[in-house]
Design brief:
The protein has about 475 residues and is an alpha/beta fold. It is built from 16 helices and 17 strands.
Length: about 475
Amino acid sequence: MHAETQFQTLKRIFEAALARIDPYGMLLERMRVESAGAGGARLVIELEQQRHEVDLTPFSRILVLGCGKASSRMAKAVEDILADKLPAGLGFGGLVCTKYGHTEDLKHIEQAEAAHPVPDEAGVAAARRIAALARGADEKTLVLNLISGGGSALLPSPLTYQDQGREVVLTLAHKQAVTRALLACGADIREINCVRKHLSELKGGRFLRLLAPATSISLILSDVVGDRLDTIASGITSADESTGAQALAIVRGYGIEANIPPEVLRALELGAAGAIDETPKPGDAALAHATNLLIGTNHAALLASCDKARELGYNVAPLTCLLTGEAREVARFLSGIGQDVRRSGMLVARPACVILGGETVVTLTGEGKGGRNQEMALAFLAEMERDPEQGRGIAFLSASTDGTDGPTDAAGAYASPGMLARAREAGLSMAGALKDNDSYHFFEAIGGLYKTGPTRTNVCDLHMLLVE
């Protein structure tokens, strides 16, 4: 099979996963308004293993709030489901904040755009507006929170705290510096979110304190390995089991104290000492009227990709949807699996498709451009270079389901013997690109980038290995 054909096959498998986890389609299938007699109505949300119903009679309005790369796509579904089916007199509207370029055509719900992964002033402004709407919710308000990956960066609300009688206001610049330091040191998403929660007015469940006493239902698309509700978008509507002491320990453990502003370090120190109120823990009164519903996961994306690969004639081996670790090390592991399958059919017989899901990290050693999936594909190609014969008949795609791998316009990248030949013809150094974390420009030069554009969904990454 030619390299171009393998690339097209991998794209088809990946696109099948994207279709399965499109939040618009998922919500249209699972949420509806039913009549309840005497002019009443109820909202029904039916998931695979859970059904949730809400009588709309006690409410005077439905307020839609949200944050994340998929929030506008989710809002589009909510509008199409609810707008023309609600009882007369029931108000409907709201505001969501999404990443630049990820908006939809909405009529009732406002949209704000902001930066990801490093927050900007537009995100701060959106956070203020959403917080104000949340404070205005009362007992007659039903709040629908639309939450997806990216919500942490897209809704920055820096903490204000007291230090020896002096008010200290953290700024966006402080939050940006912390985010950059955590990304650069190789901290995983749970560690990053733990720190974010304890530097925010909204994250770690603090948003629910603003919503009380309103009833809220949060529809959540998971972008974190393991689907922990307290980690997705930094657990904005979930109880937080992490502590200020843990947040401080993460910063100290990575040795990045000198890389973050002193005001931030002081806030973490005061939080660890109990001088700043903790985030809501399980049993907190703010959680009493809140319901969290998980509507989409990496597991669902992985199953869809497996179905498509089988349809295309491959023997499929789904390994895990909980993959973590350093991107380069994972690439070496997957290269070894590919060679075993090619040599002896170990794990699965050829033609084979091995599929994994999760989210890796990259510890930066240079100042190039790229993302964790492009870095993994480059490291996989470097393994092929060690012994090109071992890579014969093997192709690999690593890509993010949100269409954005790191601060780039590519979802990921593709590795194959054909790509290796192109790199050699171009005189490119894989070792140099890896050292400088410059996978984007490397693959751009040989046509190995995979670009989907904004997918308006987000459930971590998929890694797919073909062995012909």
